[in-house]
Design goal:
Shape: globular
CATH topology: Jann2411-like fold
CATH superfamily: Jann2411-like domain
CATH class: Mainly Alpha
Oligomer: single chain
Order of helices and strands: HHEEHHHHHEEHEEH
Distance between the termini: 75 Å
Strand order of the largest sheet: 1-2
Strand content: 5-15%
Number of helices: 9
Helix content: 40-55%
Length: about 220
């Protein structure tokens, strides 16, 4: 049983986690790929309207809960266990996100993964510490990643795996950036004729339609 001081500390963690999870309930998962959703935790990147969703290690864990990588219990446990080193882990997470953004942006601009993008992507494996280990039966080898639910930045493993799967796909032309130049959100276009233009029709898409209507109306 926790003593009074320990219980108060734990209750503080619980309250922080509850607030963090509540914050991310409104975060839209519109990228059609968990790695793109991770990159999209910066809105209006590089503009005066820039919005940073992940402002702390706890925010990153709460995003992972929103994305179904972690359960609420995992968030509480990881936040409590790694609180003393949360700033270091937070910095690693932000480096990972920026690297993925740069890699995906290079693909969108060049139509393929260039050498710089490949080098950047390979550096991410240093964050998740993959290890080559003997597979079942002892006649093959597999890459072993840290468990997403038990290590401080293990939740990045599914993100990086999703990135690799995307970059190895044969449809990189479907990796796009929202047509709203200020928005900057990335997404994987799953439309039948590869015609999606907006991160979300209900936000950037509707604003663009309203703007075009206003311009046409004023010309009359």
């Amino acid at each position: 049983m926790l003593d009074k001081t320990s219980q108060e500390v734990f209750n503080g963690y619980m309250l922080d986690v509850e607030n963090g999870i509540k914050k991310f309930k409104s975060f839209a998962l519109d990228g059609n790929n968990i790695a793109l959703d991770f990159v999209n935790t910066v809105e209006y990147r590089g503009t005066k309207k820039e919005i940073e969703w992940i402002e702390s290690y706890l925010d990153a864990l709460c995003w992972a809960e929103r994305s179904s990588i972690l359960a609420k219990e995992d968030v509480i446990r990881l936040f409590e266990a790694n609180n003393d080193e949360c700033q270091k882990f937070y910095e690693d997470i932000i480096v990972c996100r920026k690297t993925l953004h740069d890699v995906f942006s290079a693909v969108i601009e060049d139509g393929m993964l260039n050498k710089l993008g490949l080098d950047l992507f390979n550096k991410l494996y240093k964050l998740v510490h993959r290890v080559l280990t003997e597979g079942a039966g002892g006649n093959n080898y597999v890459w072993l990643f840290p468990d997403a639910q038990t290590t401080a930045v293990g939740f990045l493993q599914p993100v990086i795996q999703a990135s690799a799967d995307l970059l190895l796909s044969s449809n990189l032309s479907r990796l796009k950036r929202c047509s709203n130049a200020e928005c900057g959100w990335l997404y994987y276009d799953t439309s039948k004729n590869n015609s999606r233009r907006w991160c979300c029709m209900s936000s950037c898409g509707n604003r663009a339609k309203a703007s075009n209507f206003y311009k046409r109306h004023n010309k009359k």
